[in-house]
Structure formats: C-alpha cells, structure tokens
Amino acid sequence: MIDAILHSKSAIRELPPHLEQAAIDAYAHSLSAVWVVAGSVAVLTVVTSLFIQEKDVGSKGEGTGGGVVGDGGEGLGGGTVVARGH
User: Fold this and answer.
1) Distances from the Cα of 33 to the Cαs of 29, 37, 38, 49, 59, in angstroms?
2) What one-character DSSP code corresponds to residue 16?
3) Tens-of-pLDDT digits for all 86 residues of the chain?
4) Which of 11, 43, 54, 70 is 20 to 30 A removed from 25 (C-alpha atoms)?
5) Cα separations (Å) of 1 from 6, 9, 22, 31?
6) Distance between CA atoms of 75 and 67, rounded to whole angstroms?
7) Do residues 69 and 81 touch, judged by C-beta distance below 8 A?
8) HSE (side-chain half, CA atoms, 13 Å) at 68
C-alpha cells in the first residue's frame, strides 16, 4: 500500500478516511521540512555571499587567447603572448 502511495498520489483517495488524513499529514510534514531546509540554505548562501571579497583577476602581461605558447598540441587553441622588453 505504501509503495502504491509513493508512486501514485491518487492512491491516497482509496485509503480509509483515517489513513487518508494520516497520509496527507505525512506529505504536508515532509514538504514543510523540505521548504525549511531549502530556505535555510538560501538564507545562508545570501549571508555568506556578502563576505566575498572582490579580487582583480586580470593578467599582468599583454596577450590574447589562453593557450600554450608553441605548437599547442591538442589544446583549445594557440595563444599569443607578447613579452615586454624582449
């Protein structure tokens, strides 16, 4: 009977009235627990994101692409690096 209820919510309607109410209460309890956990994670995520520091990730040299200098092998593409002072 439990397996039928887990796979088809319409099976709840086939239960006797006192078991039908118990099944509905169990679903309501499980859904409220999921919302409490999900809401807590969301609030924790927002609060912790307020403490993320901004960092500059720009490159120190001039260049284009992000590949390996040389033949590149089977990379994502050849990069071009312009060295200063050479």
Assistant:
1) 6, 6, 9, 24, 47
2) -
3) 778 877 887 888 888 888 889 888 988 898 999 999 999 999 999 999 999 998 888 766 555 555 555 555 555 655 565 666 65
4) 43
5) 9, 12, 13, 21
6) 7
7) yes
8) 7
Q: What are residue 48's phi and psi, to 5 degrees?
A: -70, -30
The residue whose two tokens read 């209460």 is 25
Structure tokens at 39: 């809401």
DSSP state letters, 20-80: HHHHHHHHHHHHHHHHHHHHHHHHHHHHHHTTPPP-----SSEEES-S-SSS-TTSS---E
